[in-house]
């Protein structure tokens, strides 16, 4: 948290853009949003294309509860664009029933219980993991020191 304290207190930014999983999840994010609210800094949680529908739904619920919500970054999940309308691949809807849906520039939450998204393990087993280079993820040393990837 001390990494952004001076930046927020000095109001050097208008929006705080962090990845919830990098700061420890919903509880630290709620605390960060409250801290930022006191200084007029709005939230803009990081929503890269590798964010799962579960992560996106969690962020959207946080957005709805934060008085200083600014904007939600959303790069889509595994989606296809057709005539400017995002349509999700059937496999994604199969694996993540209730995933948020993008329509006309807005993303909508499901009205299902909890965060609205479920995970179907049997469906996921049909789509094996694709090996990727995650080198850009390593932004800290083992002792917690922040480093450039």
Describe this structure in words.
The protein has 149 residues and is an alpha+beta fold. Helices cover 32% and strands 12% of the residues. The chain contains six helices and six strands; from the N terminus they run αβααβαββαββα. The chain has helices spanning 2-9, 20-23, 26-37, 53-65, 90-95, 121-125; strands spanning 15-16, 42-43, 79-82, 85-88, 101-103, 106-108. The protein has a two-stranded parallel sheet with strand order 1-2. A two-stranded antiparallel sheet has the order 3-4. Strands 5-6 form a two-stranded antiparallel sheet. β3 (79-82) and β4 form a beta hairpin. Mean pLDDT is 84; it is low at 79-87.
Summarize this, please?
With 149 residues, the protein is α+β, with helices and mostly antiparallel strands. The protein contains six helices and six strands.
Q: Give the strand order of the largest sheet, numbering strands 1, 2, ... along the chain.
A: 1-2
Number of helices: 6
Average pLDDT confidence is 84
Largest sheet: 2 strands, parallel
Mass-distribution shape: globular
Kindly state the percentage of residues in helix: 25-40%
Number of strands: 6
Order of helices and strands: HEHHEHEEHEEH
What is the secondary structure topology, with strand pairs?
Elements lengths: L1 H8 L5 E2 L3 H4 L2 H12 L4 E2 L9 H13 L13 E4 L2 E4 L1 H6 L5 E3 L2 E3 L12 H5 L24
Parallel strand pairs: 1-2
Antiparallel strand pairs: 3-4, 5-6
Quick tags:
two-stranded parallel ribbon; globular; 6 strands; 6 helices; two-stranded antiparallel sheet; alpha+beta; 149 residues
């Amino acid at each position: 948290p001390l990494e952004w304290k001076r930046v927020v207190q000095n109001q050097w930014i208008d929006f705080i853009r962090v990845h919830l999983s990098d700061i420890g999840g919903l509880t630290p994010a709620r605390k960060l949003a409250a801290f930022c609210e006191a200084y007029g800094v709005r939230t803009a949680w990081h929503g890269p294309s590798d964010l799962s529908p579960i992560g996106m739904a969690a962020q959207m619920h946080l957005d709805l509860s934060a008085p200083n919500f600014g904007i939600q970054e959303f790069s889509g999940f595994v989606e296809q664009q057709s005539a400017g309308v995002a349509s999700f691949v059937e496999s994604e809807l199969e694996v993540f029933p209730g995933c948020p849906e993008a329509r006309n520039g807005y993303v909508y939450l499901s009205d299902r219980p909890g965060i609205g998204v479920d995970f179907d393990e049997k469906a996921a087993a049909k789509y094996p993991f694709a090996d990727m280079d995650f080198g850009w993820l390593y932004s800290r040393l083992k002792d917690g020191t922040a480093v450039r990837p």
